[in-house]
Amino acid sequence: MNITTISSREFHQAVSAANQGPVLITEGARPTHVLMSFEDYQKLTMQRRSIADALAMPDISGIEFDPPQAIINAKPAGLV
């Protein structure tokens, strides 16, 4: 994703630049704001989900997973 950096003075001229990707707006040399299309904003905010939702993995039914059984050779503790 290409990010354009402009000053706050140039902001009013940069609204159309947000159609090509996010526009980083600075005051002096310090970034202060980001201008982006509403579609890009929605893509960013729709990706957030809770850890419970991520772990539930509702779309996992089509994935086959058959790992080999682990063989653990336990040794008695060497207490002296």
Total number of helices: 3
Q: For the terminal residues, how far apart are their CA atoms? A: 62 Å
| Low-pLDDT runs | none
Class based on secondary structure composition and strand pairing? alpha+beta
User: Oligomeric status of the shown chains?
Assistant: single chain
- The shape, in one word, is elongated
- Give the topology string: H per helix, E per strand: EHEEHH
Question: Percent of residues in helical segments?
Answer: 10-25%
Q: What does the average pLDDT come to?
A: 79
Sketch the major β-sheet. Answer: 3 strands, mixed
Widest sheet: strand ordering: 1-2-3
**Alpha-carbon Rg, integer:** 25 Å
User: How much strand content do the residues show?
Assistant: 15-25%
Describe what you observe in this structure.
By secondary structure, this protein is α+β, with helices and mostly antiparallel strands. It is built from three helices and three strands. A hairpin with a 2-residue loop joins strand 2 (23-27) and strand 3. The chain is elongated, with a radius of gyration of 25 Å.
Compact description:
With about 80 residues, the protein is an alpha+beta fold. Helices cover about 25% and strands about 20% of the residues. The radius of gyration is 25 Å and the shape is elongated.
